[in-house]
Amino acid sequence: MKKQKSSSFVELVFSIAETVLVILALCILMGVVLDRSRVGVVAEDFGSVSPLAQLMNYSAYILGIFLGLSQYKRILKFAFKDIFLWVFIATTVLSSIWSENPILTIGRSTALFGVTILGTYLASRYSLTRLFQILCLSLGIVAISSLFFTWFSPSEAIVNDFGRSSWRWQGVLAHPTHFGRIMALSTVSWLLCLLSVQQYRIFSCGMILLSVILTFLSHAVSGYISILFVVALMTVLLTSRGRYRNLVLITWAVIIPSIVLGLLINHNLVLTSFNRDITLTGRIPLWIGVFEMIFQQPWFGYGYGAFWTGNGPSTIVWLIAGWKAAHAHNAILDIWLQVGLIGLVSFLLSLFRNIFKAIVELNRSNKLESLLPITFLVCLITINLVDSGLTAGNILWALYVFLSTYLSKQTITTVTARQMQIKKV
Questions:
Q1: Which UniProt keywords apply (predicted)?
Q2: In angstroms, rounded to a whole number, what is the distance separating the alpha carbons of residues 48 and 67?
Q3: Residue 158's beta-bridge partner residues?
Q4: Where are the domains of the chain?
Q5: SS3 of 141, please?
Q6: Backbone angles phi, psi at 160, to 5 degrees
Q7: 333 within 8 A of 391, measured Cβ to Cβ
């Protein structure tokens, strides 16, 4: 009896410690910065020349690999079901052979591998609901701590964007754009929490309100777009169930294109409202320069994480764009730049596979939980329409890998259940 109690206590302690470590890793992967003295030079993938920031980042990567090794049998069972994802990972590592900066590529591809292992571990270890709860808690910690940090140190939490003549919040993160997309992710997560969890609804409403406000204070277009698309998607999915499903779908098929057409017709007014110009704040000339560089090395790219270094090809893009961009401001273009068409195709095949499986999961179950995969995938995609970072070693990639592995697990579970039914018959 005593041995059983002792064993239960050890399991409880391990579970709590594991949860704390996962929350810590997720917060680090969101880009939390403790060393504010050099925050101005933090890179788009949350890397930094600050030794403390580098130590935090690589501790999260190492933790992911360590946790993965501790459950390697369980991970191997599901890890390679999305073979296209692992082809993409292999391409990032192999790109060090032809990279503009081989050492940088090796370091960043290793970091990406560590985050991939962490995402796979989370999917093999936690249920979708449990991981969703941990994610909400992590996002809530970042949002609330950013609010307090801004109160006590506004000069470091709010930065002046001279290009847009506006003050932008970055909270405890390294850049307002990072902060905006994380707060958009927080908005979506807490909105799903409000719909799926009966308890703590007042707290969930408070977190949604706080996340939305912080998203708008960051002035990050990717955050605005993500919230808009996800809310529209969730409205369609929630109202299209039941007796009048076809009627509702037809109605939304008319409403959504009408809204898009209205935005296109009044694009000048919309852009002015968000402090943007007709070039999308320099993005269009940037994309023109990016395409020129892509067509010079379309098949293999310039090496994972090695293009935007300020040397070689990136300087040509900067001259064309007229400003020094830290990334392509579009995930697809960034992947193409870094690992060429081979890496891009493998990633897109993985993405389409997971979208298809998420739709199958949505149709298979009437539970609200079935909304989570497709909703989060749409959120990740829309965040990266005018910004990059999905395939960097950060929270977005960890979440994508988790969803991919989870959907693979659900497919295996469904197939097994069908086989058992056939045997019974």
A1: Ligase, Membrane, Transmembrane, Transmembrane helix
A2: 25
A3: 169
A4: 2-424
A5: helix
A6: -95, 120
A7: no
Tokens matching residue 312: 């070689």
**pLDDT recorded at residue 229:** 83
User: What is the separation of C-alpha 275 from the centre of its chain, rounded to a whole number of angstroms?
Assistant: 25
Q: Give the mean pLDDT of 258-267.
A: 51
Closest CA to 171 of 136, 144, 192: 144
Check whether 261 has a pLDDT greater than 80. no
Alpha carbons 176 and 161: distance in angstroms, whole number: 9
pTM attached to this predicted model? 0.86
Taking the C-alpha atoms of residue 227 and residue 231, their distance in angstroms, rounded to an integer, is 6
- Position 159: which residue type? V
User: How far separated are the first and last CA of the chain, in Å rounded?
Assistant: 43
For residue 380, report the phi and psi dihedrals to the nearest 5 degrees: -65, -40
CA distances from 142 to 30, 33, 179 (A): 8, 11, 9
* Residue 364 token pair: 């298979």
pLDDT in tens, 198-230: 778 899 999 999 999 999 999 888 888 888 888
Of the candidates 330, 353, 342, the one whose C-alpha atom is nearest the C-alpha of residue 97 is 342
Residue-by-residue DSSP string for 294-322? HHHSTTT-S-TT-SSSSSTHHHHHHHHHT
Confirm if 181 and 222 have CB atoms less than 8 A apart. yes
